[in-house]
Amino acid sequence: MRILTATQTLGGFFFASNYAMNGETQQRPSLAGEHFQAIIIGGGINGVSIARECALAGRRVLLLEQSDFASGTTSRATRIIHGGLRYLEHGDIALVRESLRERERLLQAHNHLVRRMDFVLALPRHSGIGRSALAIRTGLWLYRRLAPAEQHAPKMERKTLEAALDHGAQLQFFSYGDAQCEYPERLTAEWLAEAISNGAAIRNHAKALTVTIRNGVACGALVSDLLTGEEYEVTADWVINATGPWVDGINQRSQSHIGRLIGGVRGSHLIFNRIPAGARALVEGHAALYTEATDGRPIFAIPWAGQLLFGTTEVAQDQNDDPAKVQPTAEEIEYLLASARRLFGSEQLSLADVHYAYSGIRPLPYAPAESMAAITRNHLLHDHAGEGIANYISVVGGKLTTAGHLGRQCARKIGCDVAEPALAVVASEPDGGLDSAQSNWAKSIAAMSGLSEEQVQAIADWHGPRALCVIRAAQKDALMRKPIIAGSNHLLAEAFEAVHFECAIKLGDILLRRTPIALGVDWNERATDEAALNIGKALGWDEKRIAVEAEAFEIERAAFLRKVEVHAAKS
User: Does 206 share its domain with 336?
Assistant: First the structure.
């Protein structure tokens, strides 16, 4: 949990739900014929960041997302906020410096979601890559020096981890600090709410079919509202294509002569619900491991949502494949499982220990002549003026850590006056001081609201400055104080706030991205039915709507978090 000040009170912009309180579908207001200064297509964290910066600069902005915000690449990342230690090997010091600066900004502005984490770098002494201990220490020293703020001292007891891992592998261990964002979906939701409160028009479940190009100028888009079935045109001074893996598809539907920009790379992860013995020290110390897979590729093992997240792979994605349907292959699952066994020394580690597997597409620049490891991880703002199309930009690449910088850079490119946010140099907090203050705050709010301290802390952990809004809603209505499911510290007030302030429409929007309790280790179909019934009652859904939402949610969740068949790989 992170402290909220007494000045952070109720407020925000009311987002009218697309459903009436009796569960009947309403026609959400049509935008047909409306003009905007900028249309941003794509509601991942990059698109939301651009919309937020443009709205803060006073521009009239429309943000379009064909599914739900943060439902694509954003939710399928490794969920770390890092400076890119790996980028030093490729000599990209500018990207490392930028990433470290953005990491510190996120830690300061969103410290309820982005938190410092100890990382342990564990590398074989004879990996064949030619790294000496001196070279690694020099790289880590440079990594720390490039960071703009004082580095926290690692707190995890490393000896326990070293003893558990070094089972004849002759590993060498090094410590450094980075950060984790367990739920980038929540960070995206916060930026989305900020864009709305500054006047942005928001449409999720609305697909941009084509970009309108007339006389060599991008001047709008043809939109299909997937909720109402309406197709309409909107116009704009600028159009930004921030759809990640879908960039080329929209470009080619809009103007066939636009060349390929995205060289999609599939990254797959395993989620272990049984923590291997060698990884328990990581979970207990809330630390991450950065090491090498069986083929020498970098790989992470990170505690996440009460489980262990392990990945990722790098596999070239066929341009003709639908990014929304990407899944880990049997070969990737076996590769990750073999790497985990090698690392943790557990022959008993099997597919039965894999809770889920998931995949996402990194929208890296198309560079067929380069190896995947050599392709830049920096984002590019491709101005199509060179192809005879003015006022049209495609965003290529980008990552969680630098999404804020990308948003500011893109807003400036279309003429917005955007300043770099101040970055204070903050020393590490004294041990116990912050925790004590947080505990006192939770006790005080719990006493006033009628909620438990655990509920207050859970809400603050996910909602930060808006936690008081959630708590106030719960305080006013006994129904809103009820948990989403029995035993959870997350309340129906959070679902209500998600619909009214963060554009959630469907059950999946709420449970996977605004209040993402369905990502937890114990979620099952029974929990889905209970949550759908409770949320439906709180939002006024009828029985038919509740049943439809529950069924659609199970389909969506299963498509994201895939159960691994035992025959999918060798055990």
Answer: no
Residue with tokens 């207990």: 284
Tokens 């409160």 map to which residue?
197
Residue by residue, DSSP assigns 229-266 as --EEEEEEEEEEE--GGGHHHHHHHH-TTPPP-B--EE
- E-strand ranges in 19-75 read 35-41, 61-65
Kindly state whether residue 370 falls inside one of the protein's structural domains.
no
Whole-number Å distance between alpha carbons of 361 and 357: 14
Rg (CA), the chain: 23
List, for residues 373-408, the tens digit of each pLDDT value: 778 888 999 999 999 999 999 999 999 999 999 999
Residues 405 and 476 in one domain: no
Q: Rounded to an integer, what is the distance from CA 63 to the centroid of its chain?
A: 18
DSSP letter, residue 175:
E
Q: Which of 100-104, 152-156, 411-415, 498-502 has the lowest mean pLDDT?
A: 152-156
- CB within 8 Å of 89: residues ≥ 6 apart: 139
What's residue 215's pLDDT? 96
What does the pLDDT average to over 213-220? 97
Domain of 463, in residue numbers: 433-560
HSE, side-chain direction, 13 A CA sphere, residue 354 = 29
Contact of 95 with 84, CB cutoff 8 Å:
yes
Query: What dihedral angle (degrees, nearest 10) is formed by the CA atoms of 299, 304, 306, 309?
Result: -30
Domain containing 209 — which CATH number? 3.50.50.60
- Indicate the DSSP class of residue 398: -
The DSSP result for 272-331, as a single string, is ESS--GGGHHHHHHTEEEEEE-TTS-EEEEEEETTEEEEE---EEPPTTS-GGG----HH
Contact 201, 57 (CB under 8 A): no
Which amino acid is residue 319, in one-letter code? Q
Residue 213's identity, in one-letter code, is I
Whether residues 346 and 387 share a domain: the answer is: no
User: Model confidence over 42-81: pLDDT tens digits?
Assistant: 999 999 999 999 999 999 999 999 999 999 999 999 999 9
Structural domain includes residue 118: yes
What number is the average pLDDT over the span 287-314?
Answer: 92
Evaluate if residue 3 carries a pLDDT over 50: no
CB atoms within 10 A of CB 382: 21
Query: Of 144-153, 365-374, 556-565, which has the strongest mean pLDDT?
Result: 556-565
Q: How confident is the model at residue 7 (pLDDT cuts 50, 70, 90)?
A: very low
Burial of 238-277, coded b for 16+ CB within 10 Å and e otherwise, reads bbbbbbbbbbbbbbeebbeebeebbbbbbbbbbbbebbbe
